[in-house]
Amino acid sequence: MMRRLFITTALIAGLCAAGAASGQETVKQGAKKAGDATKTAGKAAGDTTKDAAKATGDATKDAAKATGEATKDATKATGDAAKKAGTTAKDATKETGDAAKDAGSATKSGAKKVGGVVTGTTYKAVCNDGTTFSGKTKTDACAKNGGVKTWEK
Fold first, then answer.
1. Tens of pLDDT along 34-83?
2. Is there a contact between 141 and 133 (Cβ–Cβ < 8 Å)?
3. How many angstroms from the chain centroid is the CA of residue 81?
4. Residue 118: CB partners within 8 Å, gap ≥ 6?
5. Global pTM value
6. Are 124 and 151 in contact (CB under 8 A)?
7. Which residues are paired to 151 by β-bridges?
8. Could you give the CA distance from residue 55 to residue 68 in angstroms, rounded to a whole number?
9. Cβ atoms of residues 136 and 122 within 8 Å
10. Are the C-beta atoms of 128 and 105 separated by less than 8 Å?
């Protein structure tokens, strides 16, 4: 009986030892699989992040290029408008100057036509007795001095 008990105990101990080794192997394999899966997931996450960063960089580059082109176009349009405004102002100044010149000529011409009426022309004469006459009209010039010898200009 003892012998039977010893064999049974040895058999149970052997099975336990084999089962523990077998169980450890299963856990080890499971841990390796989990590590491989984690490694694969990490690589996939890194690749995704890399692709997203590249796409963001490309989009930023495209947006900056578009902004630069829009700014360039707006600057050109502003410059063209300023140039046109300057030309218009120059033309208006010339026209104003021409109009002022014409007005001055008309005023001068009108004053000549009106003559002494507006400006009060003074007539000068040398009388026959040598005295001089100065007055606003020719009437009665040198009347008391023997008449007009010459008219001065």
1. 888 888 888 888 888 888 888 888 888 888 888 888 888 888 888 888 88
2. yes
3. 12
4. 111
5. 0.38
6. yes
7. 125
8. 20
9. yes
10. no
Distance in angstroms (rounded) separating the CA atoms of residues 8 and 14: 10
d(C-alpha 51, C-alpha 96), whole Å: 67
Structure tokens at 89: 């102002």
Closest listed residue to residue 136, CA positions, set 110, 115, 106, 150: 115
Phi, psi for 142 (deg, rounded to 5) = 55, 25
CA quadruple 36, 42, 44, 47: dihedral positive or negative? negative
In one-letter notation, the amino acid at residue 7 is I
pLDDT band at 21 (very low <50, low <70, confident <90, very high): low
Tokens 């336990």, located at residue: 16
37 burial class (0-12, 13-18, 19+ CB within 10 angstroms)? exposed
SS3 of 20, please?
helix
The span from the CA of 26 to the CA of 32, in Å, is 10
Q: Which residue bears the tokens 């008309």?
A: 106
Two structure tokens written together for 43: 């690589």
In this structure, which long-range contacts are made by residues 7-10, counting pairs with CB atoms below 8 Å and at least 24 apart in sequence?
none
